Task: structure prediction
Amino acid sequence: MAGAALNLEPIEDIKRKQGKRFSSAVEKLRAQKLLPIAFAEAIAKILDLPKAKFDETLDLAIRLGVDPKQSDQNVRGAVALPHGSGRTAKILVFAKGAKLKEAEEAGANFVGADELVEKINGGWLDFDSVVATPDMMAVVSKVARVLGPKGLMPNPKVGTVTMDLKTVITDLKKGRVEFRIDKAGIVHAPFGKVSMGKEKLVENFKSLTDQIVRAKPGSTRGHYVLSAYISSSMSPSVAVDIASFYEA
Result:
């Protein structure tokens, strides 16, 4: 639901499709006649909506004025959120020898080489991030068709192809978030949990959007950020005033 304007269907239709809690959230936002608002206020609006029975994740959906089909306009990066993402990532590392031991000691959940390739090609994907040392990329390439479409392929541009496994694994465990533009020119990225509260979520949001703005390709012309929406896992979206990104 993130990345779309507030649903304007008749509320009776929304109740039938989405249930009482979601329709109640839609009604509450409609009553406020929301236009794009500063991101701190948007986060507060989301936190004030009826809660789900679990700790929801807050997500940013931001549409950029780039052409994803052009290789020099690919937007991708990573950021270590100051208060973490609120979830514990399962990390898989392709390594061997001394680096295998380093990864295990740093807290990687799964470490190995060809045996991991076999499991992944068999349909196993019970991990959130993949890291590899440069010498293991020939092995990783055997599962590129599986990892690539899911945004899990190790990449030196975001630091997941590295010899410094300890630092990367530590950052991922603390809540480092990777982002990349999709085919529609939109970046989707989480920036925390409802339970964190407004202050921490605002700081996380600032770090995330700052990094996305810094990732602007040099070849981009015209407006870079076209629109942005914040939502929680089970809520409608709230439009964010783009100017507030730069004011922060």
Notes: The CA atoms of residues 201 and 208 lie 10 Å apart.
